[in-house]
Amino acid sequence: MEDRLEIILERYNHLSEELLKEEIYTDFNKMKTLSKEKTSLEETIEKYKEYKQAKEDLETAKEMLKETTDEDTINFANEEITELTKKIEDLTEKLTIMLLPKDPNDGKNVIVEIRGAAGGDEANIFAGDLYRMYTKYAEKENWKIEIINESHSDNGGFTIVEFMLKGDNVYSKLKYESGSHRVQRVPVTESQGRIHTSTATVLVMPEAEEVDVEIKESDIKIDVFRSSGAGGQSVNTTDSAVRITHLPSKIVVTCQNERSQIQNKEHALQVLKSKLLLLEEEKQARELNSIKGGQQNIEFGSQIRSYVMHPYSMVKDHRTNVETSNVSKVLDGDIDMFIEASLKGEK
Predict the structure, then answer these.
(1) Distance, C-alpha 75 to centroid of its chain
(2) How does 197-228 read in b/e, with b if 16+ C-beta sit within 10 Å?
(3) Considering the entire predicted model, what is its pTM?
(4) Which end of the chain is more exposed for a tag (fewer CB within 10 A), N or C?
């Protein structure tokens, strides 16, 4: 592992030197390419530097332990050794994940779609909880959040909410979040104290680029209508909302959060391209799975995680068996344990 990390560090340092050269500023495309590559390595380099420093500190603590007879110093050194050993183990695990082969989509932004599914109002409320969970996680990762489309339910939450997350390696971290999420709890709308089980579906799509998907004008039907959602003054007084139907696939996308019909059309086309890209990738994955004789369910509608709040507290990922009793912490965006376990399972 360390040999590979040293090669990556050497490449990172080379990129840093290249980007400081004066001639790079006259070649915008080259500067953009090198900057993108450097950025993609930064998180790994940062963790590797932490790892190297922790190993140095561990050796220092061990030497201190050998050279002293003072009881307080011995206790201090032993505490340092225990903490640093655990830190090195954690960093080794994170670096191992970072060194996994890259998916071509890993560096892309994503479009996330969350829908209330089985369970009526409670499912929509849970969809709102999941939206909050992912936006909290995005804030922690310093990603930018852009709402594309939202339809609020009467008792809270969403029947559907679509949003884009922009930042570094967004798809690489969220690609395994697609699927059905199930909640078991006593809803706030329940007057008799009965436990309900509801579901919401999450779909994570890599942002499609122009070269990824080509859409023929003859394959789409575009409707415009008056927006019914929030979006600022005048958004509800003009026919600015856009609905695009892709006739061959029957996929329908809607965008109504921008004031401009042109902006809504652009966003709707972007969502459509991402859905068509995902559709093609799922088709290829099924074909590959068939060739390999695999049995893994790759449909985004399959249940991936349960959030139990009554009669006990537990969040369990059904693919990795990772679980925690701290449901509120998870719904506040602390989902790293599930993401890292899914990434470790990559082949």
Answers:
(1) 42
(2) ebbbbbbbbbbbeeebbeeeeeebeeeeeebe
(3) 0.63
(4) C
